[in-house]
From TrEMBL:
Residue span, AAA+ ATPase domain: 118-239
UniProt source species: Candidatus Competibacter phosphatis
SMART domains: AAA
Taxonomic path: Bacteria, Pseudomonadati, Pseudomonadota, Gammaproteobacteria, Candidatus Competibacteraceae
InterPro entries named in the record: AAA+_ATPase, IstB_ATP-bd, P-loop_NTPase
Family annotation (Pfam families): IstB_IS21 (PF01695)
Record protein name field: AAA family ATPase
């Protein structure tokens, strides 16, 4: 092969021309020739559609990853699956008392940094089926999505979990209690449903009193009236939970279970 032929092969050429896309028709482009190959300019509308599709796919993957990460946070925090879709906006209010309860718990979530700094606790007490767990989960979800470390548990399951550390080398009771004490927020449901033995009262006292001493806020939920709390919690502990502006929210209305949503 002579030098001129070799130069022609290696030297690319660019030729402006009108190209045709089977989908979008004619479009101005370029035809590039190099090493006996022809390279045509891609249809700009096809390129834009492909870029948009890739962008949508990336957004969908990112959204799915966020959903999975959120589900992991909720599962690790102990949120009941039934309540994962509940939030403040879906809480139905039919009375001034319900609107006040919603506003109080929502304000606690919005101003959590201030309440946490003081170790201010929240007590949700009253009849079953009145939305206490709904609001507590809405609070937990808000804080989890902000990056706080939250744990939600019934009192009896939590005490059982602590007792199960007895005799196990993997984790000692003291280590678990230490973790519970230093959570950003601990939410305990079904206060008053525990067996009430001296050993269980002592375990619960160790957790709640430890959080009190570390200025860590706690939310207690109970299907009982406020004046019945001393039957289940040490009176000294109850006084400490009310310290630093501890908020008591009474749920005195009838059960909402089975009722249709108000338009």
């Amino acid at each position: 092969m002579d030098a001129k032929r070799l130069t022609d092969l290696l030297h690319p050429t660019v030729e402006p021309c009108v190209l045709h896309c089977p989908t979008h028709g004619d479009y101005p482009g370029e035809l590039r020739r190099f090493l006996n190959q022809e390279i045509k300019t891609t249809c700009p509308r096809c390129a834009a559609e492909q870029a948009e599709a890739a962008h949508r796919d990336a957004e969908a993957r990112a959204a799915e990853e966020r959903r999975r990460a959120r589900a992991r946070r909720y599962r690790e925090a102990g949120l009941p699956l039934r309540f994962w879709e509940r939030d403040f906006d879906s809480y139905r209010t039919r009375s001034a008392e319900q609107r006040k309860a919603l506003a109080t718990v929502r304000r606690y979530a919005q101003q959590f940094a201030t309440f946490a700094e003081r170790g201010t606790c929240l007590l949700l007490c009253g009849r079953p089926g009145t939305g206490k767990t709904h609001l507590a989960v809405a609070l937990a979800k808000t804080l989890l999505d902000e990056g706080h470390e939250v744990r939600f548990s019934g009192v009896r399951p939590l005490l059982r979990e602590i007792r199960e550390t007895w005799g196990h080398r993997e984790e000692r009771e003291s280590a678990m209690i230490h973790r519970l004490i230093h959570l950003d927020l601990l939410i305990l449901d079904e206060v008053g449903m525990q067996f009430g033995s001296d050993a269980e009262r002592l375990l619960l006292f160790d957790v709640l009193n430890g959080r009190y001493e570390e200025l860590k806020p706690t939310v207690l939920i109970g299907n009982l009236a406020v004046d019945a709390l001393p039957d289940y919690l040490d009176i000294r502990l109850l006084d400490r939970l009310r310290e630093n502006g501890g908020v008591v929210v009474p749920f005195t209305w009838s059960s909402e279970r089975g009722l249709k949503a108000v338009a």
